Amino acid sequence: EVQLVESGGGLVHAGGSLRLSCAASGFTFSSYSMTWVRQAPGKGLEWVSRITSAGGTITYADSAKGRFTISRDNAKNTLYLQMNSLKPEDAAVYYCAKYVLGSWGIDYWGQGTQVTVSS
User: Fold this and answer.
1) How many other CB atoms are found less than 10 A from the CB of residue 57?
2) Distance between CA atoms of 82 and 51, rounded to whole angstroms?
3) Does the structure show a pLDDT above 90 at 39?
4) pLDDT at residue 27 above 90?
5) What is the predicted pLDDT for the residue at 69?
6) 89: helix, strand or coil
7) Residue among 113, 99, 80 nearest 28 (CA)
8) Non-local CB neighbours of 119 within 8 Å, separated by 6+ positions
9) Burial zone of 44 (CB within 10 Å; 0-12 exposed, 13-18 middle, 19+ buried)
10) How far is Cα 12 from Cα 77, in angstroms, rounded to an integer?
């Protein structure tokens, strides 16, 4: 059974930092591209960043460029999102998700972790 379990969310002041983690199990983590997606209150899903299986290609949404860093440790089956210089508009539930092999379609989602940024 595929499981994606996020952690590391919380309350932080604007300008602060958080590091999100996503522990993966039930599949060969090192073979799959992974992504972070967020959803702010009352808004739709917003893609944040993705990383290919070996970490060779990384892409960010404009809102994340220069402030967020996605990474992965395939030996630990864990995906990370380092978020710096957080803004109130970064407040959201952050989800990690697994891509379908060979495509950018998502087939599994984690339960999400809440990030709250106070101004």
Assistant:
1) 10
2) 13
3) yes
4) yes
5) 98
6) helix
7) 99
8) 14, 88
9) exposed
10) 27
54 sits in the region (left: phi over 0; alpha: psi -120 to 50; else beta) called alpha
pLDDT at 104: 87
- Contacts of residue 68, defined as CB under 8 A and 6 or more positions apart, other chains included, come to 48, 49, 60, 81, 82, 83, 84
- Residue 5 tokens, joined: 């379990």
Query: Which residue is listed with tokens 């930092």?
Result: 17
Q: Which two tokens stand for residue 63?
A: 């809102």
How many angstroms separate the CA atoms of 76 and 68, rounded? 21
Start-to-end CA span in the chain (Å)? 40
CA 64 to chain centre: 11
pLDDT of residue 113: 98
